[in-house]
Every structure is written in C-alpha cells, then in structure tokens.
Amino acid sequence: MASEIASLPIYPSAPTETPATQLIYDDWYPALRSEVLAGKKLATATLLGIPMVLGRRSDGRIFAMRDSCPHRGIPLSCGWFDGRQVTCKYHGWAFEPVTGQCEEIPSLTPSDPLDPHKIYAGAFPCEERDGHAWVFVPGPGRGRVTLSDELPVIPETPKFGAKYRSAHLTADLPCNVDHGIIGLMDPAHGPFVHQAWWWRGRHSIHEKQKHFEPIPEGFRMATHAPSGNSAPYKLLGVYGEPITTTIDFVLPNRRYETIRCGQKWFSSLTTVTPTAANRCRIDVVAAWNVFYYVPLVTSIAKFFGNRFVRQDQETMIQQAQGLKHNPSLMLIDDADRPAKWYFALKQARLEGRSASTHPMPGPVTLKWRS
Length: 370
What we know:
Blueprint: E1 27-33, E2 43-47, E3 50-56, E4 62-66, E5 80-81, E6 86-87, E7 94-95, E8 102-104, E9 123-124, E10 126-129, E11 132-137, E12 165-173, H1 177-185, H2 190-193, E13 207-215, E14 218-224, H3 231-235, E15 243-250, E16 254-261, E17 264-276, E18 279-288, H4 297-323, H5 337-350, E19 364-369
C-alpha cells in the first residue's frame, strides 16, 4: 500500500508542565499486583491522576478507594485498616471500603441528626485478574459506580488450557499514554531498540507484509506466520508444527498476542496505563504451556522479558528529553498506520461515537521494513 505523510503535528507532544493528552474513562485499568494486598496492609496507586488506596478485606475481597477522606481530605492510607473498615487518622471516620459508605463518625452525639451512613468516600469497582487488581475508573461527574452496574468485561490474558505457566513484567514510562501506546504498536523500532543476540538485528531487516482487519474498539493483525528473524519464535520450531501469531489492539490500552504451535501456545496481555497526564506504566502478563516441564523456564522467560521491556523503557526516557521542548511530530508510511487508527478510534470514543465509527473501511494490507 502506498505510503502517506500526514500534516504536522499529528498527535499531542509532551511538555512536562501541562497536560498532554485526553484520558479515557469508564473502563478498567490495572492498579498494582494484587499479591501485595494481604492482611491489614494498605497499598497506594495512582490511575488517571487519581490517588487510590487499595486493600483486601478479611473475606478475601479486594477494594479500591479514593485516597482522600471526604471530611478534611487527609489520605485514608495514613489511617488504619482492621480487615473490615478503613479508619481515617484525623478524626476517626470509619468506612466500609468496597462501597465507601461511612459507618462511624466518633464526634457525633446522640442528639446530632446527621446519619453517617448517608456519607460516602470515593470507592471504585475492583476485581482480580491475572494477579492484578483491576479498577474501573468512571468519568468525572458520573457518580458512584458499583459492580452491580453494567460495566465492560474485565480484561484477561487469553488461555487455552488448565495447565500453564505465567509471569508478569512492569515498567514506568516518563511520557503520556499516547506515546506509550503508539510505541507499543510500532513495528519498525525492533531492530534498533531491541538489539540482542536472541532478537532481530539491523542486518536482518527485510520487507514485511501484514493483513489487518477492524474489530470492535480496535484492530487485528490477522493470523500469520511470525517473523523468521526472531529467535523466540524459532524455538517453537522444535515442536514440528506450523507457528502462527495473532495480535489485537483494543481501546483504551490493550495489546493481546496469541502464538499457536499445534497444541502448544503462548499468549500475552500488555497494557499501557496512564498514571498521570504525562506518565504511564506498561504491564505485561504472559501465559504459556510451551516447554512446560523445562526447569527454570519461568525465570528464563522473565530474564529475557525484563531485558526486552527495559530497552523500551530506556528509549522512552530518552525520548522524553526531546519531548520537553514540544517539537512538531509526524506519522508516516504504513508502519505508522496503526498509530493513526489508534488516534482516530480514541477520538471517536471521546466524542461518544465509537459504536458507529471505525477508521478502517475493511481489511487492509500494510507493508514496511523491519
């Protein structure tokens, strides 16, 4: 398909002083690893600029609250949690953490007409998937939202059997979520950023042709044979079966990849979560049944996966230095076409027309060199 150069600038740049991008609310985001939520310990996280406090009740259910007492604003994480209630350190207000309902205000007397139960601290729907605490973040002004409301499906790494291994990786990125996401879907940076003996290098750059198709809230790189210049894919050749991979991107921030080799499979869910206007975090959760009985396979996978993600992180840190100066930026040729689709899909969702608008008229074939 012919290359095209769009007008400048194509997408928001990232000065550090002002918000650089619009955020997508009314969806699920991973806050932190749920394994840290144990006993009566509280943990904090920030999603879309919102400070949150998370914990696990005595019955095992996890919760997420806005880390601010509605009385005088002190962080609730400074207070106490007994497994049932979160108590504010300042005046002892006690809250049921899943609903946020106030259950006690110690300063009230029997003659005071105020009913504490009519007061709510901010609370968010919160569920565990793949070892993450996923939090539903409603849009500003929406009011209280609970798990009983009609909410989107909570994301999860695809799995194709009961026996599998899994691992996770995470890295903070000093850029807005748009830069993080288009870096995630960029197919041309691999030979330059991920230089290693076990990955493709500049000497192996060649033309590639991939087929894409629209899916709800995103797009798919249709099932295809993976690149022959990547060592991890070559390892699957020991099974003697054809190898295929499928990659989906789904708003607001999710990349799903599934690799199949007969009955063997590897899948991953990668998310880029905005923590603030100009910062985001990448999380990867992978599951697989390949080499299931090989000792230390999880440790080996995490070693190489960590190195891979750190290379992306280092590049984004370097890019942030240039973005401080608010340069004009461009998207070009077929390698950047998925980024254009992302921005169009995002804008449609922000304007409330995503159900009827898709930037792809149908299946598309893209060509690039990497």
